[in-house]
Write a structure and sequence with these properties.
This protein has about 290 residues and is α+β, with helices and mostly antiparallel strands. The chain contains 9 helices and 10 strands.
Amino acid sequence: MDERWRNFLSRDDGHRVGLIRFQAVKNPDLNRAWVDASRHWVEDVGGERVYAGDLDVVQGRAAFSFEQLLVEEYPSRQAAVEVMDRSSSDVEVGLRDDFVIAARPESRLTHKLVALVGRAIKTLARIEVVEVPQFEYRRDAATAGLSSDEAQIDAFHRTDQWQPFFMINMNEFSGRSKGSAEGAEPDAPPQSGQKVYEKYVRNTAVEVYRRGGNFFWIATPIAVLKGDSNHPLARQWSQFVLVCWPSRMALRHMLMSSTFGRGVPHRNAGLASALAIPGTPWPDYERYAL
């Protein structure tokens, strides 16, 4: 057994655990057969594959080199490792490369409450999404490492803008205390990065819901179980959030709204680093909340 797996098991805290699997596919037919078979393995140990989809790829970028994402949730660490241990080598399951992160999911009750709030807002205050211009990359040193670059935005726009899509958000909160975001009172006490970022979330969540989106799966990364420890995905991420949208146009519509813009300074002030990776859900996973 891999040494990282043993360390992971030795620190078992009794909580449910998620596996976030980034996969680079070499043989699509062989890999899809493995994906179908392994879903039954997950269910055999009391787990669930909660998501599967294709990812946008950006050539030459390690964090954007994976073609698909699988998200699974297990009742225990032992169950998760048991399923991982049943998989053969990457070549035998049709992969060129893969990267697996273990994470602690938010509770099912939290997910249900989030879904309930989302449905209520979509019913009572829904905004009609209309076509808006493509957004342009703005070179801004102040948000380096926090915002998508030109190559990522180009890849985003090359895909159908009206089909359902999801966005992976991997966030690293600032570990040090820092002043409040731009526009706050000058004498306001400093706040942690997480507290400042939560102001952005409160502002943005309503705008996501109003355009038909929802927060599908939220978790705290706790360990890298497979992959190079120097890979960009191996950072000490504070949060993994999978947001599902009815279309990319809905996200574009939100990004151009003045209401959304008011929360952006809090996001920039609260994060030390961030990744946003778009993708397209497989047909079986076109649902917007657990």
